Amino acid sequence: MELETTIKNKFKKLWKYYLLQSLLAAAALFILVCILGRNKMVVISAMGATAFIVFAMPTTVSAQTKNVIGGHLVGLASGAIFYFTPLPYYSLEYALAVGIAIFLMVALDVEHPPAAGTALAVVINEVSLDAFVTIMLSAVILSQCRYYLRHRLKDLV
After folding, report:
1. Taking the domains of the chain in order of start, what are their residue ranges?
2. I need a surface site. Which of 30, 49, 82, 145 has the fewest CB within 10 A?
3. Crossing angle between the packed helical segments 114-124 and 129-149, to the nearest 10 degrees
4. Model confidence over 115-131: pLDDT tens digits?
């Protein structure tokens, strides 16, 4: 009962931010999909999780520009390594791409959880200049949205 009351009170207090920031995230992803096209949906799927972090948790470490962009760069690199390094079992390539991405993000201090999804998407789908531009353009756009809206966004989590 106490949890229900807490949730209701939080919703009553922040409902405008819930609505606004959810709509901003949806608008940003809509624009990305319109610009990048439907054929890149698997490659930019990690951007949905990035949008959540940027718009629902804008003051967290993983929402910082260096983490969003650096994390996706690490994810791209890790995915590319295992895309070009065929192993006896494809599931091993997928697991290692994610594991190495996590290791490098933590070691380089650019932790961004959705970037592990980028590593997986790249190793499964493709390594190309087009994929690189798609992912990095998406990361930059979402980071810039957070930066320019930082005084209007609140942590909702």
Report:
1. 2-149
2. 30
3. 160
4. 999 999 889 887 888 88
